[in-house]
Amino acid sequence: MNKKTLIPIIAVAVLLIGALAFLGVRLSKANKANEEMVQLFELEKEEMESEYSTFATQYDEMQILISNDSLVAQLEREKLRTQQLLEELRATKASNAAEIARLKKELKTVRAVMRSYVMQIDSLNQANAKLTKENKRVRTQYAEATKRVETLQEEAKNLSDKVTLAAQLDATNIRIEPRNKRGKETNSVKSVIKFVIDFTIVKNITAATGERTIYVRIAKPDGSVLTKDASRTFKYENTKLEYSIKKLIEYTGEEQAVTVYWDVEEFLNPGQYTVYLFSDGVMIGERSFTME
Fold this sequence. Notes:
By secondary structure, this protein is α+β, with helices and mostly antiparallel strands. 52% of the residues lie in helices and 24% in strands. It has 2 domains: 24-166, no CATH class; 171-291, Immunoglobulins (Immunoglobulin-like, Sandwich), CATH 2.60.40. It is built from 4 helices and 9 strands. Helix 1 (3-65) packs antiparallel against helix 4 (129-166).
């Protein structure tokens, strides 16, 4: 095999290796996001199990501390109901969103009922020193359980933020081509009549599919934005930003090439221009270029 034949083969091999490496990074990112999403669901279920279990234990303790048979019977019914809901929760898979939502709603009711019984028992047995001491212990346990729930909720929020970040769109291969009236590329502000902006929305299996709006901001050297109408804005963080171009795409989760155009109808100064891309209130890419 001569050198002329060997060189193209080596070049193709290098390109293939680069493509495989890029694909490996993307797949790794997607798998990590999926793992974090599963952790988020499991964490929420663990949080609910902890609270249900604590309530069932507290009903037992309250029954020991009172002598009112009618109230004891009521507490027994509520304890059995709480234990039944706990067993239902343990038997429910974390991926069953509808059932988890129902049991979360039930937990809210159980929490309110428990709170009412604690207040009722405190009122009926205010003079009983032993009961007062035991109630203090119950409240301490409840506070500890609440603290644990709050910790789990914070961990769940952190995981949720990671999942949300992983589900955002990402734009790469951003290219801006200024063209003159003959359709040729130019970097002269005197001859440019159009900006052609190409970019790629990368593959992301964790991102929601469907219609997505891409906002493009073309910033001039002085920081002002090219726009045909100053009222054309979109929400970004806690403010509204003007945009140059608005593009609606049908996102399928796969890699997608997008092209937008800007007709130059205003006076342009030489200097560095920057294109910013936004979607779903997040900046997904940027690229600068120079005009002379």
